[in-house]
From TrEMBL:
The chain crosses the membrane at residues 12-33, 65-84. It comes from the Bacteria. Keywords: Membrane, Transmembrane, Transmembrane helix. Residues 51-86 form the DUF6460 domain. This is DUF6460 domain-containing protein. Pfam families: DUF6460.
């Protein structure tokens, strides 16, 4: 088996026929739902931006919780360290 056949996963002709057939199926699916490839890319970037915004919002919310808790925990820890028993 040549390097080209090994890379393609078969002979170039058979791989080409498979790719054309799959492209036809995917193109028909997209045409049926009236979706363009550019619209798909735009939706993908929009989805990624919303996931990033959601993740950033979550990180900020968790950070706020840490700060709220630290207002109570750190002074109590400091007091316990200052007045704790020393052995």
């Amino acid at each position: 088996m040549s390097n080209l056949n090994r890379f393609l996963g078969g002979s170039p002709g058979s791989v080409l026929v498979k790719l054309i057939f799959l492209s036809l199926l995917v193109g028909a699916f997209l045409a049926f739902y009236e979706i363009t490839p550019f619209e798909l890319v735009e939706r993908l970037f929009s989805w990624l931006a919303s996931v990033f915004d959601l993740s950033l919002e979550t990180v900020l919310r968790v950070g706020r919780w840490v700060l709220y808790g630290a207002v109570i925990v750190v002074p109590l820890w400091l007091i316990s360290r200052l007045f704790g028993s020393r052995r």
